[in-house]
Amino acid sequence: KNEVEQSPQNLTAQEGEFITINCSYSVGISALHWLQQHPGGGIVSLFMLSSGKKKHGRLIATINIQEKHSSLHITASHPRDSAVYICAVANFGNEKLTFGTGTRLTIIP
Amino acid sequence: DGGITQSPKYLFRKEGQNVTLSCEQNLNHDAMYWYRQDPGQGLRLIYYSQIVNDFQKGDIAEGYSVSREKKESFPLTVTSAQKNPTAFYLCASRGLRTGLIDEQFFGPGTRLTVL
Questions:
Q1: pLDDT means per 10 residues in chain A (109 residues)?
Q2: How many Å lie between the alpha carbon of B80 and the closest alpha carbon of chain A?
Q3: Are strands B110-114 and B10-13 parallel, antiparallel or unpaired?
Q4: DSSP string of B35-104, one letter each residue
Q5: What is the per-residue pLDDT for B56?
Q6: DSSP 8-class letter at A79
Q7: Can you give the pLDDT at residue A93?
């Protein structure tokens, strides 16, 4: 079973700061997902990646398959980015996801 | 609009009562999932289904039951056998296109409180 660890668990930053959230996993994967959960509880998929880098607006996700590590970056952070960010991995040949415990991000105006 | 709906958003039940959580999707996805979320823990898989009339236990299936009579619907019943049912429940769905990795789409969740 894959183990997924995220760091930090909590992150508070000032508006405008560059944010990095990290995710490490223990076993080879077919894909890694970054998810965003707002206080209401609903989850939105931000990225799904299996190699390299993806960018969407101010969000950038990278993955290093050899090091079994992924990062989520937020540029020019804004209070509306405040949410829990969750990393999840899909193992090879397995339809199920293993989730990290999430990083709670708070952006202060 | 395509998406996943869960109802209700908040649900209160007395201890010892069974309760059924609804999950409907109009994305034409083959696979559907039920997860449980507790404070400080990652989402844990309860049950999943990849095809109508078939479903598999996840990591924490005890005290839960599901059915998949229609492609678009995957209701979850929390039975009185579930020792600690108070939690946030999320439903998800995913396409199963051959040779491709499809992302999961999540519903808004149901917060169940057992009194």
A1: 90 98 92 91 89 95 96 97 95 80 96
A2: 25
A3: parallel
A4: EEE-TTS--EEEEEEEETTEEEE-TT-TTEEE--SBTTB--EEE-TT-S---EEEEEEEE---TT--PPP
A5: 94
A6: G
A7: 66
Which of the pair, B41 or A64, is modelled with greater confidence? A64
* Position with higher pLDDT, A27 vs B67: B67
**Percent with pLDDT over 90 in chain B:** 71
- Residues of A within 8 A of B104 (CB-CB) are 33, 45, 97
Q: What is the mean pLDDT of chain B?
A: 91
Nearest neighbour of B108 by CB, restricted to A42, A48, A88: A42
**Chain A interface, mutation test: which of B23, B98, B103, B105, most A Cβ atoms within 10 Å?**
B103
- Report chain A's C-alpha Rg in angstroms: 13
Among chain B residues, the shortest Cα distance to A6 is held by: B42
Q: B40 to chain A, minimum CA–CA distance in Å?
A: 6
Query: What was the pLDDT predicted at A95?
Result: 67
Which of A41, A44, A48 shows the shortest C-beta gap to B88?
A: A41
Angle at B87 between CA B85 and CA B91, to 5 degrees: 105
In this structure, what token pair is assigned to residue B59? 């990591």
Residues in A closer than 8 angstroms to B105, CB to CB, are 45
* pLDDT-wise least confident of A39-43, B59-63, B83-87: A39-43
The verdict on A50 touching B (C-beta cutoff 8 Å) is: yes
